[in-house]
Amino acid sequence: MADGSVSGADRDESDRRGSSGRGDGGRSGDDRSDSDNGYSDSSDSDNGHDYDDRGYGDGWEELRQQTLRRDNYACTRCGADNQTLQAHHIVPRSAGGPDELENLLTLCRPCHGVIHQHNNAFDDVRDDAPLFPERTAPKPVARLRTPADQCCTRCGAERSDPTELVAWTDVPASDDGRPAPSHVTLCKPCAGLLIKHDPAVEKEALTANHTISVHELTARRTDAPVRPSAFALSQVEIRREPRTLRERVVDDTPLRFLLNHRGVRLALLVAAGYVVLFVVLAL
């Protein structure tokens, strides 16, 4: 990222001023998030904590600046260069992650909150993060804004690859009058099924972190499950017409709850329980 006539030293000093302006003594938000202690910026500052109080040595600030310089003073998840930037440990220090450049990534504070979902120190900014990461985001931070966004709202499948998900942003209100959500995420096969089922869904209402091809989505609709998940929103409760004998006999009937990995495990567990009960009664 070009920085015009601003020198690297000026950028470093500017970043220090921006960090200290948060009231946390210039410390990275990672100091709090890796330990998940939930401290806010102000409480840390008021208590006079510094790097050494949390096990960060004297070289941490220099290492943090090296991380920001390497990442061109931009968030590696969303690309923002106009936010407060922090150094994120890929492997948390609490899990033995080292304070080394290879274990650090630059994140803006909202995106840092996306990675640390359970740290309430980021609750005030987490929703400001973009829904999708940049397509070039490193894998450790390439995730959607919330864990629920990583799952298709029709079939319930979790997708670790953000490029396999599409967000529908023009969701109508449900039939029971409940307000429509701001967006729902769908896997590409289920998104293709939605487009084929409801031609009124416009391409402009579908967003992703890459160019969306309606032809690709509709071509993949046959990969969508025949029936939606039991927890699917009413707006995406769409049934796909079965094409094969298995889909008609199993996937489109209650047998689908039994003839899957979870169903088989449950059946084996029940059978084992009956065997144990029979042995106990026989004794």
From TrEMBL:
Example of a GO MF term: zinc ion binding
Keywords: Endonuclease, Hydrolase, Membrane, Nuclease, Transmembrane, Transmembrane helix
Superkingdom of origin organism: Archaea
Transmembrane portions of the chain: 264-282
Record-annotated HNH nuclease domain positions: 62-113
UniProt xrefs under InterPro entries: HNH, HNH_nuc
Location of region: Disordered: 1-58
Signal sequence region: none
Basic and acidic residues bias locations: 9-35, 46-58
Protein name: HNH endonuclease
